[in-house]
Amino acid sequence: MINLESYVAGRWQAGAGRGSELHNPTTGEPIGTTSTDGLDLAGALVYARDRGGPALRAMSFAQRGEVLGRMGKALRAAREELIDASILNAGTTRSDAKFDIDGAIGTLAYYASLGQHLGDRSYAVEGDGVQLTRSPRFWGHHVRVPRRGAAIHINAFNFPAWGLAEKAAVALLAGMPVVSKPASSTALLAFRVMQRLVSAEILPDGALQLVCGGAGDLLEHVGSQDVLAFTGSGSTGVLLRGLRQVVGHSVRVNVEADSLNAAVLTVDADPGSETYAMFIRDVVREMTQKTGQKCTATRRIFVPSAVIDRVEADLREQLAALTVGDPALAETRMGPLATAQQLRDVRAGIARLVEAGARVVHGSAEQVALVGADAARGYFLGPVLLRADSPRDAKAVHEHEVFGPVSSLMPYASSDEAVELVAMGDGGLVASIYGDDRDAIASIVLGIAPYHGRITVGSRKVADQATPPGVVLPSCVHGGPGRAGGGEELGGERGLAFYTQRTAVQGDRALLERILGPF
Ligand code: NAP
Questions:
Q1: Is 256 labeled as catalytic in the residue annotation?
Q2: pLDDT in tens, 394-408
Q3: 505, 431, 19, 91: which is closest to 264 by C-alpha?
Q4: Residue 519 above 90 pLDDT?
């Protein structure tokens, strides 16, 4: 049994007591504990503000980018060890582990090169400036300077490596020190990532701290220059956003939460076409990758009424061929859910969708055939496809995120109806549209765009080169309105905005150019 310590105030520290237990989801066996009891978490924030902040602000974008590049290299060197930690504590297959870990490394590399691009400055000046009055001397510029507080990152259980790295990369490049907290149940991988980063001695003192275990009183000590970026369930997001200290100090908050991501096959898509094959391939991947525990997983599948039986048959065939079991075995395509609670929640979620009018057309909430694992001990569930023929009536299908390998297939009659049904999800991270008819694609893209942070369009010409909708790329924004939390992360340089204060500076143009330039 390993006891995961926290890295705070420049050293590894163990919390008091046993804290919470971490398990191997394949066998149900306990593998470790983690606790933050007795740790000085207020002190961690002070340490970040007093040590990490000044050190980062003294560096240029290029220097911060160099740090990110070295972080990525340290993780790449530890890749095998990190993959093992993911399989052990999160029940991921090797391929699913790589999705998380390589996502972390890739995001660090992307922001490292953005740092080089932004160059020798330590803050940003937005745009060209503006003449403010009739006099050409009186001028205005908008500068973006790093906030003087700590960036508190609270992450979900499903991406311990990527969640840590993608948030940290942006904050550190912007010049803010980070206090990062992984979800307790799958914290082993984040702990291993931090061990590697600390032993490589890459980061300035206080620039990155890791809190393993419960958040304790951390958020009671937030101040007006701190920011809070949270990823997790909508209910926790609502709770954190409403905390007295957060509201009282106008703490900037970013929430990445639940999402009932939709995939839409347009009316022109001919079964047998490349676009149709891409749609089936993406839906199966998005349902089952990481055992469906991805915020970007496809939860709702909308297809023209005329082809719904064909789509159901094709999806069932693909899902039936998928091997579920011990994630350490090469033949396994899908491992267990991450925790016993997840398994209970997913089973309850399926029951809720059935009660709302959907019926299970593939798989079972209770039984699954496994390779190399015991269903009585591990947290296993096979892929479950539901079908709701009256999608407007099956409200829970649009409202309740079942965070596992579970999706619902539904028919629609026109592009307008597709837009209406997708919008019933009340805000999502990503939607995907598959077709080759420009008019149908245009009306659906523009119709659902207000409800989404990202839309992918799968068509014949990109069928063999597009990234699947579940892949979050650092160059495009990630987040979504409404149910998805109303947040926005990444998006290249756009992501830095959250960690910086935009300040309009007005005055003599020549003076401003001297103190803020060169532009
Ligand atoms: P969760 O239960 O809300 O927990 C998320 C994080 O919040 C964990 O680190 C948890 O710590 C912490 N937390 C819980 N209560 C807290 C409190 N009162 N104060 C401070 N921190 C608190 O969510 P989850 O089960 O880990 O994640 C699943 C959900 O995340 C799904 O709904 C999924 O859609 C969503 N998600 C969204 C995105 C996105 O980018 N939009 C990405 C991934 C996941 P402990 O573990 O220590 O309790």
A1: yes
A2: 999 999 999 999 999
A3: 431
A4: no
